[in-house]
Design goal:
507 residues; mainly beta; Methylamine Dehydrogenase, Chain H; six-stranded mixed β-sheet; 36 strands; beta-carotene 15,15'-dioxygenase activity
Length: 507
């Protein structure tokens, strides 16, 4: 028999991802358009309970009521019924000039205070009850802070404060990126007031180009700094504003400029002041940061980078339906994800000799070279190739660390193994099983753990093989050996990201 789930593992793993791809006879074009399905795995005394519910967003309700897709998504632009009269059609066009984005929050689960939200990258979030998975209600960032977009990948500090980042396109003053903080005690005991009412702006960074802000999916944080990568993967604001007229989807408003540079902004998160050195690197595309920390006067940050922006194309539904071998063959052109380490020297002396490498750390080959104009050109060290959806032992977030975990990606949209990377030895170990697709691995530390990899890895596994029912996999994080698996007698979907909520102690 399968060995048992550790009794110390107590809590709920909440996960989010697209779960419904058609309504009535209408279908979505892109996997990131599917309606959010929230699911949870609750661990109590060696047992696992599974439940799932669709997020009851406004979008979900409107689509269900109409029995067809009536709200536009990232890759599917929807037009109103052509039989409506000309006046109401003109009005609808007007409303669509500045996109009022869907609230189909399908990417992640975020905690603000003690409130949990399903989130994507728009100004709406939906609060959910982490126990029942019921949708509590929708919240608009813009009622609390002037943002049109916000990430679904915040950071949490040891006190329980949440840091996140958003983009202010419309509104007063120049368009800018905004870093904000929601304090740990922001929740209201009576649950009447949203945690966001206590939001504080940490700082803002102006766009380097007013009509082309960088797309970003996450950012880096250390004990004292926020790192923002302003990449040449950009949102075309004019195209976004006119997407509806032109009959194009929002996804086509993202453009990669391979001839541009990438800027690295470093901001002190205590004072909100930016470090004055101009750090830059070659063009790259990044979605996920792995971790960041300070080391001997340097800021070290690890990212998963791509040479171009074709990743989104891979997830158009017609591509995902292809046989894997055919898909892999036709997608040899996709650039693989590469885990890279950048190192920025914090105390740059403008007098340093030009062309000299300012990085003095001995455990990396990353370089930071002084240029004639006083800016610093950063070249990364490659840590690993072929990994996405990275995770770490979150107790080491913002600190010097050694291990990260993730899904191995080998040119199919279905990751078929998970891996642990050791940054010091540059070696990795993997878990895989034939025709099994594991989700993003989540690390949970053992009680009283001292060592960074003392704990377990959780991943929900699905299979196209009807003989393999979905299961929750529990691995020993040290050696990636299987500790246990719990079969789930329900259909589980491929998802994106999640959050482990430890059970309240004292049970």
């Amino acid at each position: 028999s399968r060995s048992s789930i550790p009794s110390w593992l107590q809590g709920t793993l909440l996960r989010n991802g697209p779960g419904l791809f058609s309504v009535g006879s209408s279908e979505y074009n892109h996997w990131f358009d599917g309606m959010s399905l929230i699911h949870s795995f609750t661990f109590t005394d060696g047992e696992v309970t599974y439940r799932s519910k669709f997020l009851k967003s406004d979008t979900y309700k409107r689509n269900t009521q109409a029995d067809r897709i009536v709200v536009s998504e990232f890759g599917t632009m929807i037009y109103p019924d052509p039989c409506k009269n000309i006046f109401s059609r003109a009005f609808t066009h007007l409303c669509n000039v500045i996109p009022d984005f869907t609230d189909n929050n399908l990417i992640n689960i975020i905690r603000y205070g003690q409130d949990y939200y399903a989130s994507s990258e728009v100004n709406y979030m939906n609060q959910i009850d982490p126990t029942t998975l019921e949708t509590v209600g929708r919240i608009n960032y813009r009622n609390h802070i002037a943002l049109n977009l916000a990430t679904a990948h915040p950071h949490y500090d040891s006190e329980g404060n949440t840091y996140n980042m958003g983009t202010a396109i419309m509104g007063l003053g120049r368009p800018k990126y905004v870093i904000f903080k929601v304090p740990a005690d922001a929740s209201d005991k009576e649950q009447k007031k949203p945690a966001l009412r206590k939001v504080q702006q940490v700082c803002s960074i102006p766009f380097r180009s007013t009509l082309f802000p960088s797309y970003y999916h996450s950012f880096g944080m250390t004990d004292n700094y926020i790192v923002f990568v302003e990449q040449p993967f950009k949102l075309d604001i004019v195209r976004l504003a006119t997407a509806y007229f032109r009959g194009v989807n929002w996804g086509s408003c993202l453009k990669f400029d391979k001839d541009d540079i990438t800027l690295f902004h470093v901001v002190n998160r205590k004072t909100g002041k930016a470090v004055s050195t101009r750090f830059y690197g070659d063009a790259l595309v990044v979605f996920h940061h792995i971790n960041a920390y300070e080391d001997d006067g340097h800021l070290v940050f690890d990212l998963i980078t791509y040479k171009d922006s074709h990743l989104y194309d891979m997830f158009y539904i017609q591509n995902m339906r292809q046989e894997t071998s055919k898909f892999t063959e036709s997608n040899k052109t996709f650039s693989p994800p590469i885990c890279k380490r950048f190192v920025l020297p914090l105390n740059v002396n403008k007098e340093s000799s030009k062309g000299s490498n300012l990085v003095t750390l001995t455990d990396t080959t990353a370089r930071a070279v002084m240029q004639d104009n006083g800016s610093v050109y950063c070249q990364p060290d490659t840590l690993f190739e072929g990994l996405e959806l990275p995770g770490i032992n979150y107790k080491f977030n913002t600190k010097k660390y050694r291990y990260f975990y993730g899904s191995r990606v080998e040119w199919s949209p279905h990751p078929n193994k998970i891996a642990k990377i050791d940054i010091v030895t540059r070696k990795h170990i993997e878990w895989r099983q034939d025709s099994c697709y594991p989700s993003e691995p989540v690390f949970v530390a053992s009680p009283g753990a001292v060592e960074e990899d003392d704990g377990v890895i959780l991943s929900s596994v699905i299979s196209p093989d009807p003989n393999i029912s979905p299961f929750m996999l529990v691995l020993d994080a040290k050696n990636f050996k299987e500790i246990a698996r719990a079969s789930i007698p329900a259909s589980v979907h491929m998802d994106l990201h999640g959050l482990f909520i430890p059970a309240a102690s004292g049970h």
